[in-house]
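Assess this today:

___
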Amino acid sequence: MTDIGFTQSRPAQLRRLGHVLYAAGLRMQKGMAEYVKDGSSPDQVLVLEHNPVFTLGRNATRSDIHVTDAFLESRGVEVFETDRGGQVTYHGPGQIVVYPVCNLKGGREDVGRLVRGLEEAMIRCAADFGVTADRLPGFPGVWVDTPRGLEKLGALGIHLNRWITTHGIAFNVAPDLAHFRWITPCGITDKGVCSLKSLLGDACPTWDEAADSLQRHLGDCLGLDLLPVPAHSASISALTWRRGPSGPEVLVMLRTPGHGLWWSSVTGMVEPGETPEAAARRELMEEAGLSGNLLPLDFSHSFWMDPAVLGLPPGPPRFNTETCFHVEVDPASEVRLALDEHSEYRWCSPAEARALMMWEGSREAVRRLERLLPSLNPAP
């Protein structure tokens, strides 16, 4: 097959973003599509890992998900409708998601070549680790012939708008395959889903090892000269809580109009030479006048900094990576707001805090705290 991908190389920026919440990933793609649309800016290749989500393509219906909303909520799985092609699929930890946001104008107006190039990159990545994968006519993605029958190793779904591509591929390194049993993956009932882990066992590469391979082959197969671009900045959030008379209470603060006018936990930027933990302690004291037992939430996430929302000057895309902590404070501690940043505060239940918070990263931090609370605050 000779009509695979593109051979004439052109520059593109590679952003290895780590964990990205799905809603943030949708905004990220929209922002990057706007950035590349006039053809003067380099294409953007976003390599990342999502929280557990089911995404519905244009041909999917809710009936393709075989469990209730309550069941999904109890398992921490969200559902999103999208504008990509295809039906329902799963994204989650252990899976490499790649969004090539590319402008195909100027000689690349061939979606078939793009699709085959994406498939070829996944096939070559699998081969790097001793797995033979291939295409299956009529079924996008890449497949492996296993003792259980044909199983999908990598999924593909593209959206094209005025020759700008969004969405992309999902390559299974070591996700929890049980999630695929809760759906009809891509509308296919007679074939399974596999991963490098299910095929290789202990010989499975790490996520980073597989991502290194996949992005190298993407550059070759799509004719992209990939330039790695790190995140521009780092921030922290310190989710502050106390033991209240009716249960745990979370501190939320309302930002002033000049700082966004939304409810949030303690947040702030990591200064040069500062560790995230030191930044969290500093911001906790500066924003709320508090100190306490600061512990990691084992959660960090990256996001695109939307200039229209954050009041940033125009320029190249800005990305930030936020490291999240939680901190228990003495119930008798007095909150002393920095009034140039926040106008009021509330102590409220975790559920109330999530309802007030604007950003999905803040809400996810509260969910993770809720899962920790039984061990942090055992019943008497």
Residues 68 and 182 are 10 Å apart (CA to CA). Residues 233-376 form a domain with the Nucleoside Triphosphate Pyrophosphohydrolase fold (CATH 3.90.79.10).
